[in-house]
Amino acid sequence: MASPFTLPIINLELYLKSKDTPEVIQECKKAANALRDYGALLVKDPRVTEADNGRFLDLLEDYFAQPHEIKIQDARPEFGYQVGVTPEYTEEPKCKKDPHCQDVIAQIPEGNRPLESKGPDPKWRFFWRIGEQPKQTKFSQLNADPVIPAAFKDTWAITMNIWGNQMHEAIRLVTEMTSIGFGMAADTLTDLIKYGPHLLAPTASDLEKFGKNGTVLAGFHYDLNFLTIHGKSRFPGLNIWSHNGNEKVAVRVPDGHLLVQAGKQLEWLTGGQVKAGYHEVVVTEDTVKAIEKAKITRPLRPLWRISSTFFLHIASDKILKPLPPFQDNFQQYPPIMTGDQVKRELGLIELMSV
């Protein structure tokens, strides 16, 4: 059973006002320690509003409420679904193909293990590129042009870019603070993310079809990228596992806050000092309660669980390897071009042939 837990909260307002006071340096260390100890943290950014999150969620609810045959026109499997829509039952939980991930599950106490996935995830996803694109790259497949849904051509780019740029700027500051917190220069990590294939990547689950308690919407996995940031979903259900892997935690995101999770690329750069955080999304009793409440308070709205997720990436042509402040764990984390790491991970979840 997942236990409720409040993650450390990082106040970005302090960093926005001054970057070198003792209070700010302590906040930077707090961010680095939270990622090391929990693989996750909460962020309070005064520039990000619930109203903007709400407009984004409304747009995605309306998009995913469209018929299957309309949405499927926005899929780009030839690019590994790295732009446009990914249909339900396409993305496989990586543990089904990853022996290490299966070992991780086996070591978790039985009462805290993830719910078993029966097959590919029933969630949809949409990938929208955010940030500057590289002028030249060996990985054009990971840096493809965006897809704009036909029915939303007048509002899609504006709404997606407003929310995506807010997420991008918030997570960029967290990246700076993390760099300082680990004793590196502020731009050590931000230099690596410049021109990365960053993605606003909302997931969507049809709760009319998949709203039964115990349904796995996104099976046990970690994120392949550098850092992931989320706004608050209208329906709970995200569980994460503590650094030692023994405790299953039901994430509670307060209003006006953002959730940040460590990804595999950060684990690589820290030589394993920060671990990519394992998590799942499932329908819980709290999810069912939120569904019943939505039927009463928002009876005319589509009943879809949307995650306002943003994936921050290291640039595809950069080399992933443990940075100097960390133990030279090159045997476990050998140097690899980031684009190759991404393509390998996408192969594990059935999104790209490698």
Short description:
33% of the residues lie in helices and 18% in strands. It is of the alpha+beta class. The two termini are 37 Å apart.
Description:
This protein is an alpha+beta fold and 354 residues long. A hairpin with a 6-residue loop joins strand 10 and strand 11. It is built from eleven helices and 17 strands. Strands 2, 3, 4, 5, 6, 7, 9, 12, 14 and 15 form a ten-stranded mixed sheet that branches. The longest helix has 26 residues.
Layout of strands and helices, then pairs:
Blueprint: E1 3-5, E2 9-11, H1 12-17, H2 22-38, E3 40-44, H3 50-64, H4 68-71, E4 84-86, H5 99-107, E5 124-129, H6 156-181, H7 187-193, E6 199-200, E7 203-206, H8 207-210, E8 216-221, E9 227-230, E10 238-241, E11 248-251, E12 258-262, H9 264-269, E13 279-282, H10 285-297, E14 304-307, E15 309-312, E16 319-320, E17 336-337, H11 338-348
Parallel strand pairs: 1-11, 2-3
Antiparallel strand pairs: 3-12, 4-5, 5-6, 5-7, 6-15, 7-14, 8-13, 9-12, 9-15, 10-11, 10-13, 16-17
Helix pairs in contact: 2-6, 3-6, 6-7
Gross morphology is: globular
Proportion of residues in β-strands: 15-25%
Instruction: Round the Cα radius of gyration to an integer and report it.
Output: 19 Å
What order do the helices and strands follow? EEHHEHHEHEHHEEHEEEEEHEHEEEEH
Helix content: 25-40%
Number of continuous helical runs: 11
Distance from N terminus to C terminus (CA atoms, Å) equals 37 Å
- The low-confidence parts are none
Q: Quick check: average pLDDT?
A: 91
The major sheet is characterized as: 10 strands, mixed
DSSP E strands, number = 17
